[in-house]
Amino acid sequence: MSQYLPERLDARGINFASRMVVSNTVAASPAAATETTICTVTIPSNLQVFSGVLVEAQAAWTQGGSATGYTIKLRQTDTSGTTLYSSGVITLAAAGLANSGAMGFDASPAAGQVYVCTLTIAAGASTSTVSAVTLTATVI
Fold first, then answer.
1. pTM here?
2. CA pair distance 40, 62, nearest whole angstrom
3. Domains in the chain, start-ordered, CATH in brackets?
């Protein structure tokens, strides 16, 4: 009979808290048809990156007056940074309630990389109201 005991590995004893950054803070609500940062996170600068960073967002809002649709994006840095995900324009009438998610992957993040979730309201003539948002970045 073999004396070999198979080793069992699982993640029960591993703390991933330092590899996951989360924000639930609504940074702003879009006015008119301007791309607006609605949430921001920054990954720690002292982590080794093996594959990249998984970025996920979920947002809920009420469309402003005369709006015809929306675009939700995940970007590096700010509203002019590299786009990791874009929904394209999704149709939704003025005063409509939206709940939309996004997921992107950054294969080559910088140390201390900032990620933003942005929202643009198509043909919006007044401010839309973001009521909830969650943005998560997981360093892999």
1. 0.90
2. 20
3. 21-139 (2.60.120)
- For 111, other C-beta atoms within 10 Å of its C-beta total 10
Task: Give the strands of the sheet with 53-62, arranged side by side.
Answer: 20-23, 129-139, 53-62, 97-106
Neighbouring C-beta atoms of residue 71, cutoff 10 Å: 17
- Of 3-7, 101-105, 115-119, minimum mean pLDDT range: 3-7
- Confidence grade of residue 49 (pLDDT, cut at 50, 70, 90): very high
Dist CA 76 CA 41 (whole Å): 10
| Sign of the torsion formed by the C-alpha atoms of 104, 113, 21 and 14 | positive
